[in-house]
Amino acid sequence: MYHVIHQLKERNFDRPITKSEAAVLDYLEENIRKVPNQTVVKVAQESYTSQASINRACKLMGFKGFSELKYAIKEDLNMIDSKTNRHIRDTEYFLSKVNFNHSNELIKRIYSKRNKILLFGLGASNVSAQYMTRQLLYLGIPAIIVSELQMLKRFNDYSILILSNSGETQRCLQIIKEAKNLNMEILSITKKDSSVMSKSDCSFYHDVPVDKMEGISREQQLHIILMINEVINQLKTNYFPKY
């Protein structure tokens, strides 16, 4: 796992960070490849902070000082530059952000409603929903993808499974609101502590942060696919061994 890069992305520290520390972290994240060749004075100048702020930021991330931080960044960059290593590390990272034991209740509910499951997802999550629908059909579990609120009224005795990476998509929340009005059971595969999770009767969740590149949010789906595979594999093992 990366020593610095994931910390800069997530920023889940034991205490609130100050404005000057945030400025240092922003600079490190935006200039990660330059930092190993810079002095602490140079970083202070370019980040408009002080050496003291940089040292505090280093300790916040678990390093004794700037030299130790630079060494850790070099190790991270070496991992990134090795394509095979990078993909392995990224996959390991995603796996570490999913508690697969939390899939058990969702799997039981899907099986108990195996003739009455709707799925909903938007964007990249819609692709994942289509993948999951096919996998359920292979097991003989009828599954239907819905795309509009009006469709729910024809299936008010069904359960609905929401796939949402962020758990904050407004269309997903609208679907949930309409489903609740119809007294439908709401299941989800989504982000921990999100709005979708809080409004679901049962949720299989992850804790992967939003991936940003040059200010553009990229909806990463690898962990969602891994979670879907866990659900399908457990259904096969526990309820459909002949498959």
How would you describe this structure in keywords?
transcription regulation, Rossmann fold, alpha/beta, Arc Repressor Mutant, subunit A, two-stranded antiparallel ribbon, five-stranded parallel β-sheet, RpiR-like
Q: Overview of this structure, please?
A:
With 243 residues, the chain is of the alpha/beta class. It is built from eleven helices and seven strands. The strands form two sheets. A five-stranded parallel beta sheet has the order 2-1-3-4-5. A two-stranded antiparallel sheet has the order 6-7. Helix 8 (124-138) links the parallel strand 1 and strand 2. The radius of gyration is 22 Å and the shape is elongated. Mean pLDDT is 88; it is low at 212-218.
Summarize the structure.
This protein is an alpha/beta fold and 243 residues long. The chain contains 11 helices and 7 strands.
Largest sheet: 5 strands, parallel
CATH architecture name of the largest domain: 3-Layer(aba) Sandwich
Give the helices and strands as they follow along the chain.
HHHHHHHEHEEHEHEEEH
**CATH third-tier fold name of the largest domain:** Rossmann fold
User: Radius of gyration from the CA trace?
Assistant: 22 Å
Mean pLDDT: 88
Overall, the morphology is elongated
* CATH class descriptor name of the largest domain: Alpha Beta
Number of helices: 11
The helical percent reads 40-55%
Order of strands, main sheet, comes to: 2-1-3-4-5
Q: What is the count of structural domains?
A: 2
Q: At the fourth CATH level, what is the homologous superfamily of the largest domain?
A: Glucose-6-phosphate isomerase like protein, domain 1
N-to-C CA distance: 36 Å
Domain HTH rpiR-type: 4-80
Domain SIS: 106-238
Keywords: DNA-binding, Transcription, Transcription regulation
InterPro entries: Homeodomain-like_sf, HTH_RpiR, RpiR-like, RpiR-like_SIS, SIS_dom, SIS_dom_sf, WH-like_DNA-bd_sf
